[in-house]
Amino acid sequence: MSDLPLEWIDTHCHLDALEFEADREDMRARAQRLGVRHCILPAVERANFLSVQTLAHRWKDHYALGIHPLFTLKAQEKDLAVLKQSLTQNAQDPRLVAVGEVGLDGFVPGLDWSRQLYFYEQQLKLAKTFGLPLILHVRRSCDALLKGLKEVGTSGGIAHAFNGSQVQAQQFVDMGFCLGFGGAVTFERALHLRRLLVDLPLTSIVLETDAPDIPPQWLYVKASERALGVASPRNSPEELPRIAKVVAELKGVSLEALSAQCGQNVRRVFPRMENP
Fold first, then answer.
1. Which among 16, 41, 178, 267 has the fewest CB atoms less than 10 Å away?
2. What is the CATH number of the domain that holds 96?
3. Nearest Cα to 15, choosing from 37, 34, 49, 40?
4. Which helix (H) or strand (E) holds 250?
5. Phi and psi at residue 82, to the nearest 5°
6. What are residue 169's DSSP bridge partners?
7. Which domain holds residue 234?
């Protein structure tokens, strides 16, 4: 039996975040040694289109271009024009795998829902025009997201950090999406999310970290501890193999089976990753 680590794909990782500024290269190298062969780096605003592209090429990773719903408050119409231009210029780049991170957020207060909807719908149209899948931000917004997908049409993709109902999950799956599971599912009290994971077929899930956010249970710092000055450790792709271990145990499958199937799932929804 080989001593080499299993191969994993972190389908959602913000490697360009400031939290990685001090040791980004070393951190990515450590994750690679742990078997995290590929990371997918979604953009969140026009300002980081170039950074995710540059980092993806440096590490032979992959990237997505889009405007995150939390950034729609300051986004302008010209940002959509820049996104279209960037998608055009990089249309033949095999490392560009999706339009994302796009979507809707019904949780964070103070966001303009109609503005979110406008940017979401415009980016759906761009994804359709360029024949690219989507990386969707899904937070208390499943039905509205599904409505937009049905109206505009979709090339599938990944519903990131999914935590909706079984019925909503099936609707995304029927539209060609896989559902992303990461640090949140490692919490023993995440009963709904764990039931959802168990009920889904293995062909419908992918793994992610959302690093530096959504830490797994072993990195989580309670609010009471934070109040005393205990810093919250950042999440990183290095945590993915351990997250995978929790997922495999919940699903009742071997790590080898999980690695192989998740790899197939990612390449199915992101066809450009067939020849990394």
1. 267
2. 3.20.20.140
3. 40
4. helix 240-251
5. -65, -40
6. none
7. 8-274
What is the helix (H) or strand (E) element at residue 36, kind and residue range? strand 36-42
Is residue 243 one of the residues assigned to a domain?
Answer: yes
181, 247 Cβ separation under 8 angstroms = yes
Task: Over range 146-163, report the average pLDDT.
Answer: 94
Can you tell me the distance from the alpha carbon of 185 to that of 240, in angstroms, rounded to the nearest whole number?
A: 12
In a domain, 1, yes or no: no
What pLDDT, in 10s, does the model give residues 162-215?
A: 999 999 999 999 999 999 999 999 999 999 999 999 999 999 999 999 999 999
Residue 3 counted as domain residue: no
Phi, psi of 38 (to 5 degrees): -130, 145
Per-residue pLDDT reduced to its tens digit, 91-113: 999 999 999 999 999 999 999 99
131, part of any domain? yes
Element (H, E) at 14: none
Cα–Cα distance between 211 and 37 in angstroms, integer?
A: 16
Place of tokens 């500024």: 21
Pairing outcome for strands 36-42 and 62-65:
parallel
Q: Is residue 100 classed exposed, middle or buried when 0-12, 13-18 and 19+ CB atoms within 10 A define those classes?
A: buried
Question: Directed axis angle between helix 191-199 and helix 240-251, to 10°?
Answer: 70
